[in-house]
Hints:
The chain is an all-alpha fold and 89 residues long.
Amino acid sequence: MHLSVIRLPHEAQKIDHIMEKFASRYCECDPTIFANVDAAYVFAYFTIMLHADVHNDTIKNKITKEKSLENNADVKNREGLDPVFMSNL
C-alpha cells in the first residue's frame, strides 16, 4: 500500500534512504513481525524487487512462489518469515 501512493525516485541512494526509514518506522509501529530493522529493510527491498519481477514484461524468468520463500527463509533471525505471511504477499 505504501508504494501505491508514492513513486520511488530512480536514484538507488534515495531509494535506500526511503527503505531504511520505512523499515525503522515499521518496526517502531509493529515490532512483532520482524526481529529487527535490518530484517524489515531486507524484506521491504525484496518486495520492491518482487513487484518489478511480476510487472516487468522484459523479465522472462519470473520468480516462483517457492523460490521467493526459499530466498527469504533466513530474514527473521534465521527462523524465516511466516509462510502464510509470505504467501499472502
